[in-house]
Amino acid sequence: MEREQKIRNWILDLPKKGKITFSLDEVNAHFPHVTESNKRVSLWRLVEAGKIQSVWKGFYIIIPVEYELKGSVPPMVYIDQLMAYLNRKYYIGLLNAAAFYGASHQQSQELTVITDKGNYRDKHKNGVKINFVAKKTIPPAYIQQKVTKTGYINISSPELTAMDLIFYQHEIGGLSRAGTVLNELAEELDFKRVSNDFFSFFPSTTVQRLGYILDEILGYKEIAKGLYEKGCKAGLSFRKTLLKAENDTEEAGYNKLWKLVINEEIEIDE
Length: 270
Prior knowledge:
The chain is α+β, with helices and mostly antiparallel strands.
């Protein structure tokens, strides 16, 4: 019982040191002489008391006072620490990133984390869902670090967010949803500030589809022009392609500038 109390005290004292997460490995390192059984019981009792929450196998968060009644903590609070524990590069993307830049009514109830080194299964626990999206290369120059109450989080820049919305359209519900979000995100976009390497992270078809939507559907001509000019400067070669890869092309129109067969009607929610 005394050893159990020591573990409890050690854990609950961590926030005083500016730390709100811990791993089972850390518990083992601090209490090498306590049996595995006793450590499990100590952690289980803290979970039952609503003091800590298991957010990943072997990884816990000490529940801040403001979340005690709810009994679970939003993943945005601990995602940076969790990804450091997993030794993964990451950033918050898609609808979550867009909401951060002003597309507020597009805020998702789920958190989308774009990460490297293979896929994780989506995590759904205690009413909280984390969607993991795999990306071959995480582009550090286009990720912004934002301060939170508990540390930092990595968020895609507006330009990277826009490209991801098109590239990962199936993750958010299709091109019409992407267009609706882009309509709110557009004021933050300036492709003149990206370097040529920006275009190496996506196929040229992503640029074509994004450019067309900004240009013809949303009417952001100057932003689309900046994207087009920057893409050309980076050496992109546009080839005739479909706006929607899965659709047929019967009676479809054609956009010469973006070299797109317009085989999808994009509807923007106001």
